[in-house]
């Protein structure tokens, strides 16, 4: 045993000293997702509309440049099948707005809702000179009162366009919703990374953006690089899908 230990010791003594271990290379930083907001340009987008998970009709979102700094965004949802055609899934909304630098400033708004047992027509004006917005039409009296405006106030449709402009991986977005006689704070969170979203026969590498302060009413949008409109818009109530719009096609005008 003594001679064996001695042999091992001699062998170790005769081996050249090992070189100092090289430091492990620092891991390469993960590159940030390349993300570029789409410019505001005219387009027409067509969506498949689902109601509570079942095909119910279709929807169209359209942005037009009406001259100078003025633009218009329209959304039409048409229920064509089953109960969706009678339960109010027939909606037309529009907002006229101005593009002032990178800010979208609403000028007027209109909503028409049609259904077998209900109908509603409402129009509103954002009077920035007077500093108030006001809606008239089929509304409760308290919702026809003037609303003091604040810089950055947005209609429902303009929030969709603003998210397209502002969303970046991991970003938070905050908007003051002023529409149809109501004022609400809308806060959104974008996911840190994109995910694969299947929409019909098309697959998008899309960024998920969800509203964080909607309570039982959830709004989730998926946006994709190079596409000027959300590829999917999902509204959920009490944890269940309600209205689900899935992009079929879009084209510049």
Write a compact overview of the structure shown.
By secondary structure, this protein is mostly beta strands. The chain has helices at 2-14, 156-166, and strands at residues 43-51, 54-67, 70-79, 90-100, 103-114, 119-127, 132-137, 147-148, 172-179, 182-199, 202-211, 217-224, 232-237, 240-252. Helices cover 9% and strands 54% of the residues.
How many strand elements? 14
What strand order characterises the main sheet?
A: 8-7-6-5-4-3-2-1-14-13-12-11-10-9
Q: How big is the Rg? A: 27 Å
Helix content: under 10%
SSE string, helices as H and strands as E: HEEEEEEEEHEEEEEE
Explain what this protein looks like in three dimensions.
- The protein has two helices and 14 strands; from the N terminus they run αββββββββαββββββ.
- With 253 residues, it is mostly beta strands.
- A 14-stranded antiparallel β-sheet has the order 8-7-6-5-4-3-2-1-14-13-12-11-10-9, with helices on one face.
- β5 and β6 form a beta hairpin.
């Amino acid at each position: 045993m003594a001679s064996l230990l001695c042999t091992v010791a001699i062998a170790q003594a005769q081996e050249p000293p090992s070189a100092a271990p090289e430091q492990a290379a620092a891991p390469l930083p993960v590159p940030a997702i390349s993300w570029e907001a789409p410019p505001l340009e005219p387009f027409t987008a067509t969506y498949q509309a689902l109601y509570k998970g079942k095909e119910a009709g279709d929807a169209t979102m359209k942005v037009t440049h009406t001259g100078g700094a003025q633009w218009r965004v329209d959304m039409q949802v048409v229920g064509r099948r089953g109960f969706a055609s009678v339960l109010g899934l027939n909606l037309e909304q529009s907002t006229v707005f101005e593009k002032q630098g990178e800010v979208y400033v609403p000028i007027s708004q209109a909503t028409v809702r049609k259904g077998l047992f209900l109908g509603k027509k409402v129009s509103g004006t954002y009077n920035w000179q007077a500093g108030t917005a006001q809606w008239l039409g089929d509304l409760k009296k308290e919702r026809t009162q003037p609303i003091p405006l604040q810089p950055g106030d947005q209609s429902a449709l303009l929030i969709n366009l603003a998210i397209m402009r502002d969303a970046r991986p991991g970003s938070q977005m905050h908007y003051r919703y002023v529409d149809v006689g109501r004022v609400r704070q809308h806060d959104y969170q974008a996911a840190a990374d994109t995910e694969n979203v299947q929409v019909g026969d098309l697959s998008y590498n899309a960024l998920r953006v969800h509203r964080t302060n909607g309570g039982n009413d959830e709004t989730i949008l998926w946006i994709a690089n190079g596409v000027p409109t959300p590829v999917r818009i999902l509204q959920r109530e009490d944890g269940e899908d309600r209205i689900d719009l899935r992009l079929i096609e879009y084209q510049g005008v």
